[in-house]
Amino acid sequence: MPPSVSIEPPGVFIDTGGFLALHVPGDAHHTEAVACRNQTLRFSRLYTSSAVISETVAYIQRDNLLDQQNLHDVINDFLRPEKWITLLSVEGDLLSQALQMVKDRNDRRFGVVDATNILLMEKHQIDIIFSFDAFYDGVSVKRGHNTRFIQRVGP
After folding, report:
1. pLDDT tens, residue by residue, 113-130
2. Structurally, what CATH architecture does the domain formed by 12-153 represent?
3. Among the four 15, 111, 116, 153, which has the fewest Cβ within 10 Å?
4. pLDDT, tens digit, for every residue of 51-108?
């Protein structure tokens, strides 16, 4: 019998749109997002960053997407990330690289958090993003001598 080899399931990075779809019942992608999260957590772990969490809470507050109690429930989820997400740090020169990426991209819809997501995915070798943003399509993630492309969860 051949020796067994441990295979690490692929990581999935969740961005702001993924969190909004999960937590806001009126979101157009809510049902799909809940199913996607549940399926993903059967085989993998979700990763995110403090930048994504900050942006998610800011959108909910600014656009009044949830009442105060439901916002508190979302925040409580973020205060206990070990339940279902792993928080990745934005450290070192990653912010500078993200700002340069935004400048180079020259697209008003592509922000610092989006650039940070791509850089964190590259750094932690994550190929899949739980997102409904089409601008992730075709974005490359470098793996040493290989270049792979981000696969987006969502329509």
Report:
1. 999 999 999 899 888 888
2. 3-Layer(aba) Sandwich (3.40)
3. 111
4. 999 999 999 999 999 999 999 988 988 888 677 888 898 888 999 999 999 999 888 8
**Calpha distance 118→150 (Å, rounded):** 9
What separation in angstroms does the CA of 88 have from each of 6, 38, 48, 94? 23, 21, 6, 12
Calpha distance 120→72 (Å, rounded):
27
Query: Residues with Cβ < 8 Å from 155, sequence gap 6 or more?
Result: 29, 32, 132
Domain spans, the chain: 12-153
